[in-house]
Amino acid sequence: MKQDKTLLSFLNNNETRAIAFQVITLLIIAFVIYSGISNLMFNIEAREIHTGFAFLSNRAGFDINESMITYTPEHSNLQVFYVGLINTLVVAVVGIIFATIIGLMIGIARLSNNWLISKLAGGYIELFRNIPILIQILFWYNIALLTLPSPRGSFGFFDSIFINKRGIYVPEPVSEPGFVWVLIAFVLGIVLTVFMRRHFRQKHDKTGVHTNTLGYTAGLIFGLPLVVFFLLGSPMHLDYPSLQGFNFKGGRTFTPEFLALTFALSVYTATYIAEAIRSGIEAVNKGQKEAAAALGLTQTQSLKLIVLPQALRVAIPPTINQYLNLTKNSSLATAIGYPELMSAFGGTVLNQVGQAVEILGMTMAVYLVISLCISLLLNVVNKKMSIKGR
Amino acid sequence: MKQLVKFSVASVLALSAFAVQAGTLQDVQANGSVKCGVSKGLAGFSAADSSGTWTGIDVDVCRAVAAATLGDATAVTFVPLTAKERFTALQSGEIDMLSRNTTWTITRDASLGLNFAGVNYYDGQGFMVKSSLGVDSAMDLGGAAVCIQAGTTTELNLADWAKSNGIVYTSVVSDTNAQTLSNYDAGRCDVLTTDASGLYSMRAASNDPSEHVVLPEIISKEPLGPVVRQGDDQWFNIVRWSLNAMITAEEIGVTSATVDVVSNNPERERLMGRSGNTHEYVGLSSDWTYNIIAQVGNYAESFERNIGLNTPIGIARGVNALWTNGGILYSAPFR
């Protein structure tokens, strides 16, 4: 009798029940995953679909028009993977930089006391945030193709920059032997600037005398490399684009696919960043600004020293989330044929090779790793920015 | 969108263990329609008109299979697919057969778990440029930007051809036929390359066909035909012999108008199911070939109706004529 009672109370115990339900849920999930995978293996085998990763070392055989690393159709499918990965990262980095700049400007403009500026910024946000990004990409791409002239009627600037349907062609700097010293001078300039600033900050802390370091900084970072550059007799020349046959050759080309994609992603993501910045600034207690004014700080000093440091703490986490979204949205490039990872590897290679599971698995893993890295960065920044000692 | 399609295809592949077990014929008969993957729109091969009716020579192969298996050439569910989606859709069982100007290659036949059931159009890759460009040979295309559809044999052929001829080009890839064409129209590229039949079809569909020139060079062999999943021999036979029935009917001279004429030609009587028992071997009723010819027509009828000289596309029979007329179209005998 007594034993029964113990068993009953054991079964009625909340903790026991909670654990039991969790175990059951876990078992169900494990079963679903297991049966999915074993079904997949069974089907692949039954249909005699080729499996494995040997295709990575096979010759790709198709051309890619945009690549940061050497690529010809003779290269392997693995090289296509790298080309796509690098193109994805390029779009993500360029998009993040422009989205941040635009977002910062729009976010601050949104809070402007000037009625027109504030309304324009608001209109920008409402317009671009509420149109699906895929449509925006296709829109800018087709607008660029429809409005720009053909190569023979290009818009030219100073005979060195050309704009037409095939892209924007700019002169490309080509370094000659000895240019490496200019780079060394540049790095040295940055290092010296850090020491110089520390010196003047210590001086400020000790004596209270403020020194404007802007001139020294410019001199060290830009002046020093320039001096080295001219002393070595300008070890660099520009490769100018010129019309040869059907198209421009030489220089650096930014294709309409790349431009439309990064433009659309920047403009779209900037709306969210602007809102994050606005909410950050609005989160700063009004009393803080009033106190700054009472202490005699100017508008700029108040923004720089009091408002922004506190606003950023609120604004940075959502902004980094938007960086993450931008990176993932870059896979929409497949709609306009920009050869990033999803388009070149997850699309073309998949179709030439036909191994959907391996190729999509690799593609998903890459996006996952990139996203996890960005979240890791977010956590680090968050920890650093959070209020200490409270 | 595309990712969504692929993820769902992968998950369907993962969760459809039972679909593969049943025979495709039984599935088709249970559903009352053939799920046939076709191109998203290539005039003369597979295109939907304003009322949503699909026509074209690729479409006619789907209709022939439906007539053979269900006795009704209209019992087809058309699934429009891009070049990139087509094989996964077939592998995953989303469609019963693929009839989408697909080139028969050893890689596709032997490594994708698919089988090509025959050839319904012998094609080759060509180039089309705007007349205003003043180019009359593909050899003059060095440095040109080339519009091309992603994930096709065309992409591979172009790279091979350019390499062996020392021609440097820039490729501009797009996902769909429509985007490739609009890129070419907008002047994103100088030249459009795909199967010659596709070029004729696109030229016919353009505002002013005289503005475009198809260059004389044909740089590859492109045998286009219907595809089925590997491992279902009965279904494979049905698709292969439905196509063969259309070719044999042309050879014998049976058209949709003359199916009911009884003759003293034994082969014709066998084809029309009035003698012999070949229908038992493919597991269909004795009027299966009769239904194909009566409802879809023989190969010549399908060809002339969709892409022949009297259509806007205007392709001559050329290599696609019967072997008896100087072409290479040839069916194994119905015996």
Give an account of the 3D structure.
The complex is a heterodimer of chains A (390) and B (335). With 390 residues, chain A is of the alpha+beta class. Chain A has a domain at 77-130 and 257-385: MetI-like (MetI-like fold, Orthogonal Bundle), CATH 1.10.3720.10. Chain A has helices at residues 2-12, 14-46, 77-110, 115-129, 133-147, 179-207, 214-231, 256-283, 286-294, 299-329, 341-353, 356-385, and strands at 155-157, 161-164, 167-170, 172-175, 236-239, 242-244, 247-249, 252-254. The longest helix of chain A is centred in the first third of the chain and has 34 residues, at 77-110. The radius of gyration of chain A is 28 Å and the shape is globular. Chain B has 2 domains: 2-122 and 224-325, D-Maltodextrin-Binding Protein, domain 2 (3-Layer(aba) Sandwich), CATH 3.40.190.10; 125-220, D-Maltodextrin-Binding Protein, domain 2, CATH 3.40.190. Helices cover 39% and strands 16% of the residues of chain B. Chain B has 14 helices and 14 strands. Chain B starts with a helix and ends in a 29-residue tail after the last helix. Classes of the chains: A alpha+beta (390), B alpha/beta (335). Chains A and B meet through helix 2, helix 5, helix 11 and helix 12 of A and helix 1, helix 5, helix 6, helix 7 and strand 10 of B.
Tags for this entry?
heterodimer; A: 390 residues; alpha+beta; MetI-like fold; two-stranded antiparallel sheet; B: 335 residues; alpha/beta; D-Maltodextrin-Binding Protein, domain 2; 2 domains; five-stranded mixed β-sheet; three-stranded parallel β-sheet; 14 helices
| Whole-number mean pLDDT of chain A | 86
Q: Uncertain regions of chain B: pLDDT < 50 for 5+ in a row?
A: 17-21
Write down the overall mean pLDDT of chain B.
Answer: 88
Radius of gyration of chain A: 28 Å
Query: Which percent band covers the strand fraction of chain B?
Result: 15-25%
**Domains of chain B (count):** 2
Derived from helix and strand composition plus strand pairing, the structural class of chain A reads alpha+beta
Give the helix tally of chain A: 12
Give the CATH superfamily of the largest domain in chain B: Periplasmic binding protein-like II
